[in-house]
Amino acid sequence: MGTTHLEPVQEPKYWHLKTVLNEALDSEFAVGEVLPNERELAARFGVARATLRQALEQLELEGRLQRRRGVGTTVAPPRMGVSIGPAQGSWPGAAGDAWRTVGCVEAPAPAAVARLLGEDPDSAADAGTLVHTVRRVRMMHGQAVATELLYVPRTSVPGLPETLSPATHPRAVLRELNRLDLESEDRAVELGSARAEDAKQLERLPGAPVLVVTTRYVAAGRVVAVAVATYRADTCRLTFGDTGSMEITHHDGAEQRQAS
Amino acid sequence: MGTTHLEPVQEPKYWHLKTVLNEALDSEFAVGEVLPNERELAARFGVARATLRQALEQLELEGRLQRRRGVGTTVAPPRMGVSIGPAQGSWPGAAGDAWRTVGCVEAPAPAAVARLLGEDPDSAADAGTLVHTVRRVRMMHGQAVATELLYVPRTSVPGLPETLSPATHPRAVLRELNRLDLESEDRAVELGSARAEDAKQLERLPGAPVLVVTTRYVAAGRVVAVAVATYRADTCRLTFGDTGSMEITHHDGAEQRQAS
DNA sequence: TAGTGGTCTAGACCACGCT
DNA sequence: GCGTGGTCTAGACCACTAA
User: B13-75: what CATH class?
Assistant: First the structure.
C-alpha cells in the first residue's frame, strides 16, 4: 500500500478508496494484522479523515475489517457460517448447541411478539399474554455472534410450576418446550441495527448492523414460541439448508496468511 | 415534531435524534409523506447537518425512511416480505414467479462461483468451467427488489445447442434446467453493499446495503446451478419456510395512515 | 433553474483500551 | 497518559430531479 495519491476520477473518492484498500487488503495484509491509524491513512491517500472513514465503514460492513475504539483497525477473518434451522438441533435448548442462557423473566408480550404468536390484535392491544422471556447468547469460536429473545407463552408450557427460582427458571422452560414435538418453523431475516442492550453483549457499539432472524415455532397446529435473534452482520454468514456443507469458511483473497 | 432542541444527555446526539425522529415518524407522519429537508431538520434540532444525516442514515438502514437525491426524504412503507425458497416455485424459471430475465452470456465461472459449484480448487485456478450466466431481476409491487446472477455449467444442461441467439438463450437455459428434478438447496445469507451494476437496477446508489443470498441447487447428487441474488436490504424482509404465513406486511407503528 | 440529497474538507473534542 | 477510533461542527461544492 504505497503513498498512492488518487488520480482524479469522476467516481466518489471514498468509493475508489474502498476499491484500493480492498485490493491492498488481499495482497498486502494478513488476517488479524493492524492497519495504520485513520489519520495516517487519510494523510497517505491525501483525503480528509471523514472521507477515509466512509471507505472503512463500508469495508467493515462487508466484513473485511474490524475496528475497535482505543485499539485500532484490523483485517477481519472471513465471515463464519452460522447454521440457522431446521437442521443442527436448533429447536431451542437442544443439547449440544452453542447457546448460553443469560436470563429469564415472565412478562406480558410486546405487541409485535403477540402478533407473531397469532393473537387477536384487539385483545393483544390492551392485555398482552404472559410469556416467559428467555434471553440467550450464541457463542462460536469463543465469540458472541448472536443474542436472542425467546418468547414462550405460559399456555405453551402448562407443566411448569407457578414460581421458579431465577437459576432454574430458564432451564425449566426450555426443558418443557423440548417435550413438545415441533411441526414446522417459519423464519424471516432482515437488516437492523443493534439496540444498546444487544450491542453490549455482541461487543459492538449501539447501531451496529445486525441480521434479525425471527422464528415462529409451530407444534400441534399452534405457534408455541417465537424467537427474535440478532446476529452480528459483520462477522456472520447465515446458512440455511440440509447439509451445512456450505459451512466452508474460506474466502476469495489471494493468500490467507495469519498474523502473529 | 416541534422545535425540540435536544436536552444535554450523555448519549450520542445522532442516537438520541434517531429515537426522537422514530417516534415522530410513528405519531406524526403518514407513509409516503415527505419530511422537511436536511438543512431545515438540522436547524430545527440544533445540530450540524452531518449529525442529522447520521440519524437519517440509520433510519433508512432500518427501512423507516427512503431518501432520493433531488427529491427528498419520505416515510417508507413497512418492509415487504419476499419469499425465499424452498416454497413458491423458486426453482429458477418456474412459471408464475416474479423474475424478469434481462440477459445471458456464456463465460468462464469466477473463482468464487467455481468453488460453490464444487470444482477442484486447483483446476478452477487456471481454467474455470464455462457457465451460462443468466442475469435476472425480481419485481414486486412494480418495484425491483433483487438482482440475481444464475450460473449454470454447460455440463448441467447438455441438451442445449452450441450456439443460441441472445433472445432465446436465457429462456432455453432455464427450460433445460427445469427438466432436471431438484433434490435440495443450500442457502446462505449475508450483508453486502451493492456493486455499481446491481445498484443501478435496484434504483439505489452504489454501496447501498443489500442482503446477498447464495443458493446451490443440487440434482442427481451434483451441484447443477448456483445463484447469487442481491436483495435491497432497506425494503425487503426475506421469509423462509413452509407456509409463507409470515408474509403479513404490517408494522408496529401506531396509525398506518396513507399519504395522498 | 431551484431545491434536494450526496460528497468532501479541516478542524475540534470525547470515550475507550492499553500500559 | 497516550493513542486509538467515535462524535460533532460549519462550512463548501457537486449531481440529480422536477418544474
Answer: mainly alpha
Chain-centroid distance, C-alpha A77? 16
Q: B247, A189 in Cβ contact below 8 A?
A: no
Least CB-CB distance to A189: which of B15, B207, B238? B238
pLDDT for A187:
93
List all nucleotides in chain D with at least one atom under 7 A from a protein Cβ.
3-12, 15-18
Query: What pLDDT digit, counting tens, does each position of A26-51 carry?
Result: 999 999 999 999 999 999 999 999 99
Domain definitions of chain A by residue range: 13-75, 80-243
Per-residue pLDDT band at B257 (split at 50, 70, 90): very low
Whose CA is closest to B97, among B132, B145, B160, B158? B145
Q: How would you classify residue B40: left for phi > 0, otherwise alpha for psi between -120 and 50, otherwise beta?
A: alpha
pLDDT tens digit sequence for B109-152: 888 898 888 766 555 444 567 888 999 999 988 889 999 999 99
Number of H helices, E strands in chain B: 7, 10
CATH superfamily of A80-243: Chorismate lyase-like (3.40.1410.10)
CA A27 to chain B, closest CA, distance in angstroms equals 16
Closest CA in chain B for residue A110: B252
Per the CB < 8 A criterion, the answer to whether B134 and B152 are in contact is yes
A185 touches chain B (CB under 8 A): yes
pLDDT in tens, B208-253: 999 999 999 998 888 999 999 999 999 999 999 754 444 443 333 3
C-beta separation of A75 from A35 below 8 A: yes
Check residues A103 and B62 and name the one with the higher pLDDT: B62
Contact A184 B236 (CB under 8 A): no
- What phi and psi, each to the nearest 5 degrees, are found at residue B232? -60, 120
Dihedrals phi, psi of B144, to nearest 5 degrees: -75, 120
Backbone torsion region of residue B142, taken as left when φ is above 0, otherwise alpha when ψ lies between -120 and 50, otherwise beta: left
The pLDDT of residue B3 is above 70: no
- Please name the residues in contact with B145: beta carbons below 8 A apart, sequence gap of 6 or more: B80, B82, B138, B139, B202, B231, B232, B235, B236
User: According to the model, what pLDDT value does residue B159 have?
Assistant: 73
Q: Out of 3.40.50.1100, 3.40.50.11690, 3.30.450.20, 3.40.1410.10, select the CATH number for domain B80-244.
A: 3.40.1410.10
What is the distance in angstroms between the Cα of B168 and the nearest Cα belonging to chain A?
33
Which distant-in-sequence residues (6+ apart) come within 8 Å of A229 by Cβ?
A: A138, A146, A147, A148, A149, A212, A213, A214, A215
Sequence-separated (6 or more) residues with CB below 8 Å from residue A225: A92, A150, A151, A152, A153, A156, A177, A216, A217
